[in-house]
């Protein structure tokens, strides 16, 4: 059985005040709600539904309607000293809504908070439609899919980083061995240098001449080392410049390969897309209006006992109008003229055909809108790619210029060093006699060994830097842990929609079992939703929520039945449980502290009382519109507002 979900402490359960002006049938009124259940009692046409629709608007829904003849109406909901407003204004372009409602989760409020007669879930059960799209409507599947794409990209980049780190760490043993070898070679040269310095000290040559010769050789050695370092820098910078030039050519080729698109093309696409969306919204409004007309007229013609608007039920002409003979004349409720009942039925069939045509037109518009969205996404991706390549080309050109300037500076420096070395070599050549002595030879050996030691020291430092850089890289365990976290999040996002679907189905099935027991529908053994995946052959598989019914007769025999055979009250109960399941599965109580109930007349009073008690366990503020006789069976602890309060 489903575990009762109490509203969280984050949801506002404080005292509420609602002020309404010129909405629905209400001129102006202010009512207050305490936490728990509030019953709006009164006969029909006493503005109970108008109040619920206004409250829907303050919460963030789309239900409030402007009072006939008024140019502006508004509603204000006050909770914990915070005010949430909604204004409805009549303009030349139509009705506009503005303000700061309690939440911007419009779909959530309309689908699972506002359970009026036209609630989509209740109507879907009544018509036998698939419930999947209704229950999953608040889920932003496009955002989830984008998050999955982002996680995949992040995971690929992290895997590449992990592979790079592993490759570099694999070189550590070789680098450490090379560092050890270099240190041994440097130590060996240091021993030789110490020996030569001892030999120099033992010479009895002229101290001043020996000092000059040593300084000359040291100077020559220093210039040669500096020249070597400069030539190494030149080679490195040339290599960097050549690599950047290759990179620049590749970037330019990639940029030329990206198709160009004009601003006019994108503007035209956006204009067409907006136009198609306007057409689709207009069609949906038309379809909804036509359906309302057809359903209303079907209700008038379907059963005996319906009171035709404006006709006295005791009138003999009306009694004749309700006869089953389709040729019998009836009074048209719209114009007052007498027409054949069959003529009205024919006109309803014509309207149904118009609805089907409009639905086909809407499907075609939807397909065109999706195609244009794909085109827009392609243009945006091309634009981003062009801008990225342009920035890369600009950065690469700047780097090439920097390398060229660096090369010029290094070449100038190398030329100066070669000139200085040439001059020093000439001076050394002039000290021929000194050079022929063992002292000069020893100095030359010292110079060569010092140069060699400098080269080895530089290489050892480079190896040390590379080892330090590798050791500073993230550890493979840390990278694997990050990959595991990404994989877990990716799997969670992949299954998020399926989990929500499963949660909604479980909530419905558990609550349906409980409510069937609470309301005492003895001839219904079970009503449940089965989650199925239909493979349409084209495109991805679609998930559907199949509503199933098993009845039990007086002998205890159970048998399958179809939802269409449910009574009106049974269908209303099923529709309400669907909305409760969606309310809990989407955790709507975290977003909105209200649930609004209306149009429960098809359910008997005792079951209404049990149903309200059941729903009250899950909602901080439950506002229910009831007839006076239906309200009598509910707990006296529930707050009551009479119709008089709505006309004050």
Q: What report would you give on this structure?
A:
- This is Archaea-specific SMC-related protein.
- InterPro entries: P-loop_NTPase.
- It comes from Natrinema soli.
- Keywords: Coiled coil.
- Residues 348-510 form a coiled coil.
- Strand 8 and strand 9 (338-340) form a beta hairpin.
- This protein is an alpha/beta fold.
- Helix content is 61%, strand content 14%.
- The protein starts with 15 loop residues before the first strand and ends in a 6-residue tail after the last strand.
- The protein has 17 helices and 15 strands.
- The model is unreliable at 1-10 and 315-324 (pLDDT under 50).
- The strands form four sheets. Strands 2-1-4-5-6 form a five-stranded antiparallel sheet, with helices on one face. Strands 7-13-14-3-15 form a five-stranded parallel sheet, sandwiched between helices. It has a three-stranded antiparallel sheet with strand order 10-11-12.
- The longest helix has 90 residues, at 341-430.
- Helix 2 (106-113) packs antiparallel against helix 15 and helix 7 (207-257) packs parallel to helix 12 (438-471).
